[in-house]
Amino acid sequence: MRSTAERHEFLRTRLVPRRTLVTAGAVAGGLLTGRSASGTPTRGAASRTAATRPAGSSDKTPGGAVAPFGRHLAFGGDPRTSMRISWQVPAPVDRPFVRLGARPDDLGERIGAELRALHTPGVAGERPAVDQYYLHAALEDLLPGTTYHYGVGHDGFDPADPEHRAGLASFRTAPARAGRFTFTAFGDQGVGGAAAANDSLLLDRRPAFHLHAGDLCYADGSGQGRTSDAYDPTAWDPFFRQNEPVARGVPWMVTTGNHDMEAWYSPDGNGGHLARFSLPGTGFDPRTAPGAYAFTYGNVGVVALDANDVSYEIPANLGYTQGRQTAWLDRTLKELREADGVDFVVVFFHHCAYSTSAHASDGGVRTEWVPLFARYAVDLVINGHNHIYERTDALKDGAVGRVVPVGGSTDPRRDGTVYVTAGGGGRDLYGFPADAPESYEGHEHAAGAVGTFHWTRGGRSAPETVTWSRVRYRGFSLLSVEAEPGPAPRLTVSALASDGGRVDHFEVRRGV
Known about the structure:
The protein is an alpha/beta fold. It has 9 helices and 27 strands.
């Protein structure tokens, strides 16, 4: 197996001319441009690179014939005052922008956007070259707890014009003071009927934001980190179209899975991610690890991690941050635990720390990060990778600190951390070991001991027998979490099947 950097070099030198590839550094160099909601210039305005197509370039399709699609939101550094709006166009455009206002009929503010272009070289006998154009606008100085209406456009396409008003959308900033709210999560989505059904279920929950735990669209269908992995960049277009009804109004906070390492664009596989998404710039190095960042919403601190950096199972990017991500995680968890008003800390990433399904558990995650989760009494860890729903008891020092049945409760300071695998986002489903039948709300079965394994360094598996697998559901599903502040704050965590039926629920409590 080659590393991602070796795959990148192989593709760059053997399959395509060197000048046609976009590097991660080029994509990262094009920082967000635009203006804040108050009209002042945003920071990082405008170094133009090979990844940013110059405005005014020739041979463009007329702007009026180019319709935006695939709108998706993400928080900026502070969810109370900042938002990132991203979208796609099928051809280059001049002077892209966002119109913003308090009402759909009053979009007086105009905020400039940045165009980030990706060129994916063709492969003889497989597919032609592909050019994709992603646009990003940074909105700053917004008012907390406020609903904003917006539309996206460019020269020749004004979203405020009557013929384009159907494309308007809205979002709401985080409140200034903590209150009750809901967020949702899943991983391993892809494109298809099950994924779209989960999107509809998600909208019914009216979440403040959504966490996507990696393996987004499966443009790299193998995800094994091999030179032979096939790659189809056009898979991203239907992915963004499918999710637009949700992501245009709900911040879509994503991280990277093994199928999201795209060696075409950069030695670390993150160049495409940098072009397609605009995520909070609070990570240790968002230009090279865009899947690692943190934000606080109400009384919940959320940390996203790129588990490709520590995975023993698929080591294509093992150690690519040279320990910087883990050091940043240590600092960030410490800061969140010391922050006023933060009751809960939720961490999400792709590879599982604890699961019994097909990919089982990753020893790299356990070695590098689980001790930090224990040190700072992380309240909830959300993973994907295994295409099922599975939930552990509260784990402390690698063992069950407290049995948490369906409907149970736990305090991480006393009992340890609950780990949830929420990989039923839409991709083909996996199963469980023969001695671990499904066990979920209304269909509970005594877990007993389960024979499974974990991955060790070198991509080898080591058998283990575990007793921590408490809830197992083989079906499409999503996680819905309600956060409640107050003198006895709590997280109410529910797993919902694609028909809306509940398959698990439990509470994480503090202060009682």
